Amino acid sequence: GVLMFFMSKTGTRGGKGSEGEKLMICGPERARRGAELKVMSSVETKNPGTFTRGVRDKESSERGFDTNRMLFKDDEMSYALGKQGSTRKKLETASG
Question: Is pLDDT at 10 greater than 70 in this prediction?
Answer without folding.
Answer: no
